[in-house]
Amino acid sequence: MPSVATVEIRCPACGLGTLLEDGGRQVVCNACSCSYPEADGVIDLLPGEPVKRSLAQRSMEAEQIVRIYESRLWRRSPYVALLLGISFERELGLILRAAELKGAEKVLDLACGPGIYTRPFARAVVSGSVVGLDLSLPMLRYASQRADQEQVDNVLWIHGTALDLPFAPEHFDVVNCCGALHLFPDVNRALGEVCRVLKPAGRFTVAAFRRGEGRAAAVRAAARRRLSGLDAFSTGDLESRLHTAGLRDVQYHHARRAWLIASARKTREGVSAHA
């Protein structure tokens, strides 16, 4: 795991200081001296803090889900590939190409889950670093363990929320968010945070559940969101949200059946809007 010195992590308590390692199993704010535990390779920025979760988000805490998430029983399942209209391997290839990696970038894998995208990003930026951030501690512990087993050592794992990213503005070259945007309770706020932490011209890659265009599809999606916390986006809806956040040059790499894969870039307008 890389040193926290490679990533400027803002203190969630005061919002002013930077978290530094103190030589023990915690990191400490250099401004307010608040400390946050580090265990199982994960820095916990939400220790003991009650965070409201939807039914869909709570399912990501279940050990059964954690264990099978990236197996052929779920994310690599041929049945899931049929539902989404694309295999995981092909999706990963599209995402990595859309990120336009050169090898030395700082990457944020937002809502990284078990690290199914994080580890390939880390291998692609051999001279850079990756942060995997997620709301689920069980997912992060699994992700950290898998990274250790596979000797992927340029990833920093953080327990945090997408709605208030603990990073300085314009800190990352790339932000990836695959398989999770439809879980966020406030998508627009999360996208605003993505734009804030991206460098000018930085790339955003995303994969999420797709719905059709039109009012009927929007009504069904809203009902599903109220019941389960699981959202879905039409291409027009997602593009509008990305533009509002300050992300332009939207490209769709896959938009069929139940899945969308897209990329966008932070523009100068995004810099001024989220500075």
Task: Give an overview in words.
The protein has a single domain, classed as Rossmann fold (3-Layer(aba) Sandwich), CATH 3.40.50.150. 33% of the residues lie in helices and 25% in strands. It is built from ten helices and eleven strands. The protein has an eleven-stranded mixed beta sheet. A hairpin with a 4-residue loop joins strand 1 (19-21) and strand 2 (26-29). The protein is globular.
Strand order of the largest sheet: 1-2-3-4-7-6-5-8-9-11-10
**Second rung of CATH, namely the architecture:** 3-Layer(aba) Sandwich
pLDDT < 50 runs, ≥5 residues: none
User: Which outline best applies?
Assistant: globular
Number of helices: 10
Gyration radius over CA: 18 Å
- Give the overall pLDDT as a whole number: 93
Largest sheet: 11 strands, mixed
| Spatial gap, N to C terminus | 30 Å
CATH superfamily: Vaccinia Virus protein VP39
CATH domain topology:
Rossmann fold
Task: Using brief descriptors, characterize the structure shown.
single chain; about 280 residues; alpha/beta; Rossmann fold; 11 strands; globular
